[in-house]
Design goal:
The protein is an alpha/beta fold. The chain has a single domain, classed as TIM Barrel (Alpha-Beta Barrel), CATH 3.20.20.70. It is about 25% helix and about 15% strand. The protein has 6 helices and 8 strands. Strands 1-2-3-4-5-6-7-8 form an 8-stranded parallel β-barrel. Strand 3, helix 3 and strand 4 form a beta-alpha-beta unit. It is globular. The protein starts with a helix and ends in a 20-residue tail after the last helix.
Length: about 220
Amino acid sequence: MPSTLAEHATRLNLAAPHAGRLPPLIMVTDERRLPDPVPAVAQLRAGDAILLRHYDTPNRQDLAVALARACRAACVKLIVAADLNLARTVGADGVHYPENLIPRGTRRPATANMLLTVAAHNARALNAAARVGADAALLSPVFPTESHPGSAVLGISRFVALVRSSPVPVYAMGGVSESSAQRLNGSGAIGIAAVGAFRGKQIDGRQKERADRSPPFPIS
């Protein structure tokens, strides 16, 4: 039985129709919980991905350059959120759009050689992802999260229903930990995207130094 987040993600990925094409595990950066994501690349395996958000960081381009360098050395995919030009500049593997920034129209944006992912919280967003030709959607929140204590979540039953009806592959995001990930078995998810799960220890079980525990901001 898988025990680490990485093993759970791999098991989901191998069971999905798009196995091998999309990364099993996506680390999503957070300015408060993961202020410097560059060293965190070492927590990932070759073939996994890191999604650079850090929307309000003044030196975002410099950070993206450093992150791209670390990702190339580790054979980890880099996805840049909400900035196609920056993604191209640093040679990223993909671009990601928050739900409210999903491009309009029915044709894929100029990202033919890149992964295109979007954030989604409902069926409407999953359909919008398909219209723009997205490779996958990060659907959240599946489980209760620290970022939104007490807020409504999809729950496993609703999540599974959305995955099975989704026109694009779906990552499980929001409150996914080594323990809760077990509930995703058989869900049809292509993999796992996570923020908080990377704070306490490395995904392969090795110990890491304590991360920033200041309040997180919303998943997108």
